[in-house]
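Morning!

As promised:
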Amino acid sequence: MGIVSTYRLRLQRKRWRIRAIRKRRELEPIRNRTSQIKNGDIFLFSTMRNEHVRLPYFLKYYRDLGVNHFFIVDNDSNDGGLEYLAEQPDVSVWHTQNGYKRSRYGVDWLNWLQLRYAHGHWCLTVDPDEFFLFPFCDTRPIRALTDWLDASSIKSFSAMLLDMYPKGRIDAEPYMPGQNPMDIACWFDSGNYTSEKNKKLGNLWIQGGPRARVFFPDTPEKAPALNKIPLVKWDRRYTYVSSTHNLLPRGLNLVYDEWGGEKASGVLLHTKFLNTFTEKATEELERKQHYSASVEYQAYAERLAENPDLWCKWSEKYINWRQLEILGLMSKGNWA
Amino acid sequence: MLAHTALGRAEQVARHWAASGCPVVIHVDKKVDRKTYREFQAAMKDAHLVKFCKRHYCEWGGWGITAATQVAAEKMLSNFADVRHVFLASGSCLPLRPVNELLDYLDARPRTDFIESATTSDVPWTVGGLDIERFTLRFPFSWKTQRRLFDKHVALQRKIGLKRRIPKGLVPHMGSQWWCLTRQTLSAVLEDPERPKYDRYFRKVWIPDESYFQTLARQYSSNIESRSLTLSKFDFQGKPHIFYDDHLQLLRRSDCFVARKIWPHADRVYDAFLTNEAGAMKRAEPNPGKIDRIFAKAVERRTRGRAGLIMHSRFPNEGWENGLTCAPYSVFQGFAELFEDFELWLAKATGTQVHGHLFSKERAAFSTGQSVINGGLGDSPLLRDYNGAAFLTNLIWNTRGERQCFQFGPADTQEICWKLSKDPNAQISVITGAWAVPLFKSNQNFSDLRREAARLQKIENKFLYKLRNPYAKARIRIWTMAEFIENPMEPLQTIIDEIGNAPQRRLSEAPRMADLKGFGQFLQNLKNQGMHPHLMGDFPIHDGPTVQPDKPRKPYLVK
């Protein structure tokens, strides 16, 4: 890494920060409860659109994990989700009508809120269909993890996106508010992931899973990225670059060990493939507000018309984090 | 007791000690603000056996912790005349066995000092590569906050050979910071007329809390037992492992007196060991080795990892994989061409999973024609070739416990050749030139055949070059086709013995060889067309191999 490229990355980071600061005007506070926050609180940041049905379980899941405050940007929902969020005692919510794409898929908005509120706090940045798992999450709260990361001087924590899907047609069983989505979408692919290193930012680029297997068997380079770094001890100088796949400064992306060892890591269970998906895919295709002209949604739409069964004979049924650790999808590292 | 955070927990533990009649002197780090400190003091007012001492700034690796220990120990010795043993604990230490058991234990050993203390050359646990240099260099910079200066300063001193003299008579010893010393030894250390000199020296030693008392106790103690009564496990960075609620059963089964360090929010652990002594007594059979194993495994996982696993927190640089794949597997080149139904035969003979040409250009030919295999690995050639090495690593990882065999050949994607030849888990058997058999049997125009033969020969040659490279680590066997058909059973037996799945026995059935009548002539025709097929070895020109009978052979039995 020469001086020039290091400096370029510095400029890029500053650019994203300035952009985030500029984009703050797009956010209209609906309910700002940030006066409640205390030192050492753990935050969750999310941006969403028309996800009301998922919210009750989503909030419950993360409250149980030990998240203290939720920061949510609502991108013009019309399903009552915004009103629901505004009623919650531990949620601060902002509203915007501006383009999701123009804010770099919500990154700018969240970068701003993190810059403003999250300095010195551990922040989890997830989508409403992502559920964070970390080693020992069934017996220890998330604070045990962040305390341990603090003691080990680790600033960022990796979690791979693991696509969950139901057996049979995606729309066979409707999802009800408050229901655990993993009860319906409880299957996953355990061992068809490929990783590559992003030379510039230092993060891994992971692809694979059922989406690559079913939707992109002939154009694997277009398959969506699955590497994520959702948990960061935030500093106001940090910025997410592309979704939560990578950050700047680039040292935060070094969440993997290069000398044969395993660092501790988690998993984000991705429950996109519920009955709500079919509708969403159609809508997103029209809005064209997703990554690279929604190429992902185009591929889905083509295949969805046929028979959207992602399940195969070798799908694994989800049990708990220990199963994922044995399968090599996450690791305890040196946390015991 | 040295406390710096979670003062509530420190209070609980101090009360626990005091309740059993043990006086406690608490040192609170000066970094704790005055208001919190006052509140803490006020809360402890009713405990008359608990005293507070003068506060020092404590920074990891610095002198502060030792200074704090000194003042606390002095206060203890001067305020409580009947104290015989002084136990140094931290605010996050927790007594696991009833305090009375510890008292009985110490009563039985009134002259013994429990302090882990070993000479620097004998300890393997030093972090950062500094052992004796801790005592001979100066460390004015903080390791935690001024890391770069710290490292530069160490390098500079090494370079110009600057060294401090160790005070006369002292032999540097190191060991766990947590000790239990007798009044005699401790007071001798603290009241030594030379102490100002020693203090001045140790002030600039790195991590003096692990060496000050450890070194000086050696001067005065008559009876040192070099071990700590505190159960404390360190990970590879030299920081202590932390105990949580889910370690409760493990802690119950350790037979240590005190454990460190407990997560302050581990309510169940604190409740179990502090409030209910009778409950803590009813312990299961002590099994302290289990804790050792769990933490040793954690360190192993962090430093060596699981061989043959590539994932989002393990992505080894080339050469650091600690095993390119996780289990042995076999690669066969030329066998499926030379023998009919070789895959079926091999599966029967070895009981392994036998795939076809996994790297074929059409599709990954998984065993029994499956389109998806373990772990959701699909047969799409594009998906496979997107990262061929990962495909192989995944396949072997996903099928842990079942040996994999697959066919390879010059007609396949060649991207993984290097990986195969470098992988010690690969058993590669090659019959060179056997790719010509399908050409010989095919019904194409001869000019096409000739072109194809030249191409395949070139590719196979490249593969052989990689296999014969000095960096190749696989178990490699190469035969020319002519050599192999002279005596096919012996090499097959060797390969199958090495796979070692089936009970050791002689092969009863050989695979059926393709009919090679006219193959020699076919090779000669290629030669006549100007192409030189050399990888097959020497074939008789006119009639196929001499051992070939006219009729297709039947399987035969060998006793």
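The longest helix of chain B spans residues 446-467.

Hope this helps with the figure draft.
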